[in-house]
Specification:
Blueprint: E1 4-7, H1 9-13, H2 23-33, E2 40-45, H3 58-64, E3 72-76, H4 80-87, E4 95-101, H5 104-111, H6 115-131, E5 135-141, H7 154-167, E6 171-176, H8 183-196, E7 205-209, H9 216-226, E8 230-233, H10 253-262, H11 271-278, H12 281-285, H13 293-296
Length: 311
């Protein structure tokens, strides 16, 4: 079975780092990631540099990266101005990714808008993106729970999916923004989404998990069992929402790929190349990272037995 793996580390990961990661380093890492077999790479965000100074170099990053055929380069855009700025760049992203939170409170905290204000902007965002030749996806944050409001009712999620589809978004992502999801919930909710709103292709719906409570990879398996085929990760496990308490890193891309390969799924990922990128990250950010396979090695990376155990 073919699965699509996307990486968000350069955007979602670097946005919360205290030290600014130099533009040249971002470009170099994106170029390495581009040659690992990833389907999409989220490379930057068109947001206010005052709100997220770590991503103030969006234009420079997009201008500097190599575009590898088959890889989709994505930029986050929280509002109309973000889409307009992306459309005005000399080297546009292939795709822009809007964001609305399923909970009202997190929407206010994350993008300083009510649901009504966010929804009012969506038709224009779709129009501007498509006229500029960019695809536009929509991420529904706090799909599986909100750190301020708690449980998000499945009817709220289904209503948003219906709205997004009517407005002409090219794809939809479901974000577990603070790692509140559990496998049973993921399996049941995503199965209902797929039943009510069948996707046009295997890349239409994406699941975006955080590993805040240690259930990230189990949630990926539950998503596959429900029928989802596209998943976000963050190389070395970087990331977290700067506007949500307790939002630790995303699931680790290379850990997820190692698991999927062991389970017999076709990811088209060169895990050795992905691990080479992951092992660079601690030096880039100046601290340890959550990734496990980068430390332990691939499951079938065998070792010489001790002398006394050799036949």
């Amino acid at each position: 079975m073919r699965l699509y793996v996307n990486d968000v580390a350069v955007r979602d990961g670097f946005q919360i780092e205290k030290a600014f990661v130099p533009t040249a380093t971002k470009v170099e890492l994106i170029n390495q990631l581009s040659r690992t077999g990833l389907h999409k790479i989220e490379v930057t965000s068109f947001v206010s540099p005052k709100a997220v100074p770590a991503l103030a170099d969006a234009n420079e990053v997009l201008a500097g990266i190599d575009r590898v055929p088959g890889v989709v380069y994505v930029a986050l855009v929280p509002n109309i101005r973000g889409v307009q700025n992306a459309a005005a760049t000399a080297r546009k992203p292939d795709e822009v990714n809007g964001v609305v939170s399923a909970s009202e409170t997190h929407n206010r905290a994350n993008i300083n808008r009510t649901h009504e204000q966010s929804i009012a902007e969506l038709p224009t965002m779709v129009k501007v993106a498509h006229e500029a030749g960019m695809k536009i996806t929509m991420s529904l944050s706090t799909t599986f729970g909100c750190p301020f409001e708690g449980h998000v009712h499945e009817d709220v999620v289904l209503d948003f999916v219906g709205r997004f589809r009517e407005l002409g978004f090219d794809a939809i992502s479901f974000g577990d923004t603070t790692g509140m999801a559990n496998p049973r919930q993921v399996r049941e909710l995503t199965a209902k989404v797929l039943e009510r709103f069948p996707p046009p292709d295997d890349r239409y719906y994406t699941l975006h998990f955080h590993n805040t409570r240690g259930m990230g990879l189990a949630n990926v398996v539950a998503g596959i069992e429900a029928g989802v085929r596209s998943f976000d990760g963050s190389v070395s496990g970087l990331g977290g929402c700067p506007f949500a308490p307790g939002a630790t890193g995303n699931i680790c891309t290379e850990d997820m790929v190692n698991m999927l390969v062991d389970m017999g799924y076709d990811t088209r990922i060169d895990l050795a190349k992905l691990l080479a990128v992951a092992r660079r990250i601690p030096a880039v950010v100046g601290h340890d990272v959550p990734g496990q396979v980068m430390k332990s090695g691939q499951t079938l990376e065998l070792h010489e037995p001790p002398r006394h155990a050799r036949s």
